[in-house]
Structures
1.
Amino acid sequence: MTDPIEGEFIEKGLAPIVAGPPARLSDVDPERMIAVASKLASTLKRIVDDRKLYAMISGRKYPTVEAWMTIGRMDNTVAQEESVTRQDDGSYVATAVLVRLSDGAIVGRASALCGAPDDKPWSSRPEYNRRSMAVTRAISRAFRAQYSWIMALAGYEPTPAEEMPHDDAPRPAQTAARPRAAEPPTNTPPTVTDADMADLTATATPSADMTITELQRRAAGATIGISDLNVKSRELFGKNINLLTNAERQTVAVEMGLA
């Protein structure tokens, strides 16, 4: 029996760890199989924890694609992009395969979707981001099908981090003026100076469209000060809010995000 050539792996399952026959991991007796897998898991955990190749979600560690690629490479297996297809709704479906380096055989395959309308926040990301994440998810899924049990032995969740929901959706665009805040408690009045109140109440009328009373009520709900209303009023019309017509006050309300 000749020695194997350096770099050549005889086994087709967990090749870097197990030397010599049998040809498949399934041919190994259960005790030896678990011993090999445990050794892989121990080495994997040290690498993943050291390099932080996981995402913390709800207090649990979900391995990233780099962690899945690490366990694959330890078994002499790499991932390749096989196909990427753009769907009518702007999403992408990607397929990835796992290739064994010792003989080039395809030992795994998986597909994944990214950018569907309900796939937040990816549905609103640029097209190249959606395509790239579809490939990343497909690669993670292909490795998961082969190695999720070893990942679990290492103490990680067997679901790729890329498939878990993240609270990183972009915040909604703010208005041109000040953003509207949440409604304050009803027992928390806005801060109004005596001078501001005098301006507001000088000519207040209870009728018509955007009265001072109505504008004041909306400003209070958005925690916008009366002085801010006067600043915007002078900017638009050159006079304080109490001197405007109801139509002009409506314009101020629109500019301040109160309409």
Note: The radius of gyration is 31 Å.
2.
Amino acid sequence: MAKERRFRGKIEGSEKGRVFILLPFDPAEQSGPRGCYYVTGTINGLKFRARLDQSARGYFVPLGPAKRRDCGFHVGDAVEVVVRDESPPREGLAPDIVKALEADPEAGEFFDALAGFYRKAYLRWIDATKRSPEIRAARISELVELMRDRRKMRPR
């Protein structure tokens, strides 16, 4: 989901059970296949962040009880939804990082599935070494190892 998507949806589910907004598109068509998709956007102008869930009917934005209560959403309501991929696309990454992730598809796939705040933390850590190419290269290698080991955060 490199671009934002706008659509009119309906809040589905049951008041006492799971409540959600079904997406009229497959995020994999725009963002490529991933383990999970983290999104941000608005529902009737109110901001939200979520991890998309999937059912037999497709991907959906789950709405928890607090969000429904605080925003006044009810099952059956028609809503205007704007959805954006929270994770920066790989095309926006530095070429040396892209090359390292492409060289190890397993690590790259895990990196792509991370929530944006985990990805950004790794990128800030690597970018802090712009004046030291050898340290930057070492950190990129460490990033690939951590991704291969499926570590969301680097050890302190």
Note: Residues 90-148 form one domain.
